[in-house]
Amino acid sequence: MSLEHDGLESDLPEHVWRINLDTPEEAQQNLSFGAADRWWEQTDLTKLILASNKLQSLSEDVQLLPALTMLDVHDNQLTSLPSALGQLENLQKLDVSHNKLRSLPEELLQLPRLRSLLVQHNELSQLPEGLGQLLSLEELDVSNNQLTAIPTSFALLVNLVRLNLACNQLKELPADLSAMKSLRQLDCTKNYLETVPPKLATMASLEQLYLRKNKLRSLPELPSCKLLKELHAGENQIEILNAESLKQLSSLCVLELRDNKIKAVPEEITVLQKLERLDLANNDISRLPYTLGNLPQLKFLALEGNPLRTIRRDLLQKGTQELLKYLRSKIQDDGPGPNEEPPVTAMTLPSQSKVNIHAITTLKLLEYSDKQAAEIPEAVFDAVGANPVATVNFSKNQLKEIPPRLVELKDSVCDVSLGFNKISSISSELCLLQKLTHLDLRNNFLTTLPEEMEALKRLHTINLAYNRFKVFPSVLYHLPALENILLSNNQVGSIDPVQLKGLDKLGTLDLQNNDLLHVPPELGNCENLRSLLLEGNPFRTPRAAVLAKGTAALSG
């Protein structure tokens, strides 16, 4: 028998706890029930659902329900749990998620049949040291708490299938987790992990591993995880994809590595013959191995936000199948391999650097990046001739100013990348590029933007991360087409929500790691703002918990 109660009450009527003891009212009124109809004598309460009320406490009388197999009190206002829970020896599922618990009672460890324990979204800073005594546990969710460490006794949970540690404050994982031989899903999203213990590689049953939003610098070595189907490691600091690491992941179907710092994709990625989804968006990849086109199961390939030299932006927008077809066609060409120099349809400059004429004529791309050059050679611009150029990439040089001859491309250029230079001010030449839609100025020395930039009416993405802005550039408020403003890792102290509301197409505003002391609640009125990133600011308001809930919560 099960009982569900959702009356939005802060205390539970006593008769709920006594349901197994007291004769029901209808029996007292009518004594002619046959044996088959006397349900209250045959069935003890096994499921009790008290979710989404306003319960502030749970009575010790819960012990009067010894037959309970499931107790669900999620989404209440509980600050503690009764020790009497330990007497519910038949309990198999306990859901106390979305409450205000600061600790779990030791008596909880006396539940021999407990298979599912859900304690996510509470205020736990530690777990009982003896949690490993719950030997029957198959599912444990402790996500969205304030945990800084995992009890070593976790190693005893050999029947655990799903473990969720996401959104805590873990700096390391205990190597003993490797003893969890049944574990199929491990979620460590959004912690502070810099490495993954090598011993974790022995978790032979692991199928899904989530490591997003940590501080990893490399892909973990997982030689024994032969069943691993999904590896999610986006939003880390991974720079190199180790070929050996990839070779060990032969069963992988999903590899998610977006928003890292990966510079190259090794040929060995083609050993992932079962790969269906590959997400490499927002990295520093300039070339792809053409053999990627031969992955037989690949249905989704994300590459946007990379400085790709050999693939046009419009080709990226045509979807995965067109992209794979293009890569396959390049394998058959007699051209060079993907890690060699571009085709020798190039003119040699005095500096022995090359201008890729082929890229200019077929890809509409003018590139002179990663040369550490103090200025762009005249021959680079001379090579353009009458060809229309849509994309300019002068990133990773030593430029101190905007190249004056950029203005020659004003009739066609729409995407300019000048990131990773030493530019300290924006000259008027840039403001004449009125077809500009993408402008990347990250990692420079900028402190202001000129008001003349107001002429860039088509600009919809601007990346100003890692500069020296102390004030939100006011000209941005006057660029109506803006969809993405990326201003992380500056020193911006305030924003004007009223002017921001005028940017009715703005979907992403990244102000992470700035000096904002407060977030104006009026930001909640920016209805199209889907992604508001504010982590790493010295806020007084709102609370971090509100920020974690996203943009919608700010307007609540």
Automatic annotation (TrEMBL):
Q: Would the keyword Kinase be found if you checked this record's keyword annotation? A: no
Q: Which domain of life is it from?
A: Eukaryota
Q: Which UniProt keywords apply?
A: Leucine-rich repeat, Repeat
The residue ranges of the Disease resistance R13L4/SHOC-2-like LRR domain are 214-304
Supply one GO CC term from the record.
Answer: cytoplasm
Q: What residue range is the signal peptide? A: none
- Gene3D superfamilies reported for this sequence: Ribonuclease Inhibitor
Taken from the record, one Pfam family name reads LRR_8
Extract the InterPro entries matched here.
Leu-rich_rpt, Leu-rich_rpt_4, Leu-rich_rpt_typical-subtyp, LRR_dom_sf, LRR_domain-containing, LRR_R13L4/SHOC2-like
Q: Does the keyword Oxidoreductase apply?
A: no
Extract the PANTHER family matched here.
PTHR48051, RAS SUPPRESSOR PROTEIN 1
Quote the protein name from its UniProt record: Leucine-rich repeat-containing protein 40
Q: What is the lineage of its organism?
A: Eukaryota, Metazoa, Chordata, Craniata, Vertebrata
Its encoding gene is what? LRRC40
